[in-house]
Amino acid sequence: MTPDTEEQPTLVPPLVQWRAATRPYGGEDVSGDLEVVACYPGGALAAVIDGLGHGPKAALAARAAAAVLRRQPGETVTDLMTLCHEALRQTRGAVISLASFNAASATVTWVGVGNVAGVLLRRAPLPLPASETLLSRAGVVGYRLPRLRAACLSVRRGDLVVLATDGIKGVINRGLTVDRSIEDIATGILREHGRITDDALVLVVLCSGMPP
After folding, report:
1. Single pTM value for the model
2. Interatomic CA distance for residues 12 and 141, integer angstroms
3. What is the pLDDT of residue 7?
4. CATH classification at residue 148
């Protein structure tokens, strides 16, 4: 076989693509809100962390949780939340949402603790719902961890998962469509719904490598 006729390798899209938009509390140089996206064999973890309050101490709590998630992204979301809880005991604590994407099963498994928001938007919803909402349990990671109950949802290529801290006010999926770019969606949500009285962060994750 000549070089001209050699088969070219098939390009496999990444399992997820993502964009985040964030803004610190007015007058602060550092935000207590932090996103994490970490890939592992066969999957990817996405997280939004909101250290309680704002400023350096909130950022310290968020970074402690982020370090745990980046070290072990392939663990279950409930185990990861428990690990974060132990790591944050000497901090002011945080509220956290976690979403773990699995390529083999074409699913996302998510869990939330505290005042965090999450929504799944499907490109081709039938026979599944066009959108589903993260059910977060009351509590503070590092202080009072509730009984964790993760939900596992089917996802396909082109679906979106949007996670946000409480610095984003209102319903985060209002008026959203999956045909906009993830960068436009993230910046648009922050611009239209971000509070100036708190740190704010929104993370938009596209299921780019899931089965069609």
Report:
1. 0.91
2. 37
3. 54
4. 3.60.40.10
